[in-house]
């Protein structure tokens, strides 16, 4: 595992954001590193936009640092400071995983959309009409997952309150339509907001859908899960999405495949 540095471990990973105290990334890092049989230290770093350049310089200087995860509000802000960015992350203008390479180079990836894609393809979902609540970063990842060839959904509608955000989303994904144009009941619902899914979509719409994918893993998650279970609607929790994206990020960091179900078990034990 290499020589141990001053941290007392072989490798270090972290997560940056603001606020950051709620982040479950350290739990994911620690669980994944045990599976990969690595000795790893993980920590949270609360930054602001002014300290990002100094943080990036510090990452380049420390060989122990394998990379870091990025949460809000820095998923776009870190991009100018990286050496390479994956095509997916460029299209989304969003990086949530940064990996240190040779000669201290840094490459940014987006694993959020992969989590959505995997959760739907494993359930063999093919949607005639999808309704997404929200038009921010999570919604962008969801649209990309749905429309990446071969497309999972024929039509994607967006339900949101901010005209400018919808316009920005449509500039990247011209095929999306506002929910006001929806002429059929959606069979796939995606909550890409921090709000409770049931209150956003309403009982009737959720009952008549085939699957609810819920980025929200805190407020109203258990209510949504129980409601879907009672009405025969498949449910993908935000914790599952978190575990899936964490498994892909862990493979970037450690070079070892990690079963997302192991990470999900640990997240559920935390009782979030």
Overview of this structure, please?
- The chain is an alpha/beta fold.
- The protein has 2 domains: 11-110 and 246-270, Leucine Dehydrogenase, chain A, domain 1 (Rossmann fold); 113-236, Rossmann fold (3-Layer(aba) Sandwich), CATH 3.40.50.
- Helix content is 39%, strand content 21%.
- It has 11 helices and 12 strands.
- It has helices at 25-35, 52-61, 87-92, 112-121, 137-147, 163-172, 197-201, 203-207, 221-230, 238-254, 260-270; strands spanning 11-17, 40-46, 65-70, 84-85, 97-100, 106-109, 127-133, 153-159, 177-178, 188-191, 211-214, 234-236.
- The strands form 2 sheets. A 6-stranded mixed beta sheet has the order 2-1-3-5-6-4. It has a 6-stranded parallel beta sheet with strand order 9-8-7-10-11-12, with helices on both faces.
- Helix 6 links the parallel strand 8 and strand 9.
- Helix 1 crosses helix 11 and helix 4 (112-121) packs across helix 10 (238-254).
- The longest helix has 17 residues, at 238-254.
In short:
The chain has 272 residues and is α/β, with parallel strands linked by helices. The protein is built from eleven helices and twelve strands. It has helices at residues 25-35, 52-61, 87-92, 112-121, 137-147, 163-172, 197-201, 203-207, 221-230, 238-254, 260-270, and strands at 11-17, 40-46, 65-70, 84-85, 97-100, 106-109, 127-133, 153-159, 177-178, 188-191, 211-214, 234-236.
């Amino acid at each position: 595992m290499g020589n141990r540095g001053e941290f007392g471990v072989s490798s270090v990973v972290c997560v940056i954001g603001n606020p950051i105290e709620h982040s479950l990334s350290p739990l994911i890092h620690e669980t994944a590193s045990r599976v990969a049989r690595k000795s790893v230290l993980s920590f949270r770093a609360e930054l602001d936009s002014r300290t990002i350049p100094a943080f990036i310089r510090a990452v380049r200087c420390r060989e122990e640092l394998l990379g870091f995860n990025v949460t809000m509000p820095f998923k776009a802000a870190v991009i100018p400071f990286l050496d390479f960015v994956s095509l997916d992350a460029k299209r989304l203008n969003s990086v949530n995983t940064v990996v240190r390479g040779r000669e201290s180079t840094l490459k940014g990836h987006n694993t959020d959309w992969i989590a959505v894609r995997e959760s739907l393809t494993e359930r063999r979902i093919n949607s005639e009409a999808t309704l997404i609540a929200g038009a921010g970063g999570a919604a962008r990842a969801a649209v990309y997952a749905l429309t990446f060839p071969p497309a999972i959904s024929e039509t994607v509608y967006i339900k949101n309150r901010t005209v400018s955000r919808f316009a920005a989303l449509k500039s990247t994904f011209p095929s999306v339509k506002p929910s006001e144009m929806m002429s059929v009941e959606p069979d796939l619902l995606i909550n890409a907001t921090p709000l409770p899914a049931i209150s956003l979509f309403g009982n009737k719409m959720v009952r008549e859908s085939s699957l609810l994918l819920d980025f929200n893993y805190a407020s109203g998650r258990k209510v949504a899960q129980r409601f879907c279970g009672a009405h025969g609607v498949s449910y993908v929790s935000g914790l599952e999405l978190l575990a899936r994206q964490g498994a892909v990020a862990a493979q970037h960091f450690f070079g070892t495949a990690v079963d997302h179900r192991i990470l999900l078990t640990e997240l559920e034990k935390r009782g979030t």
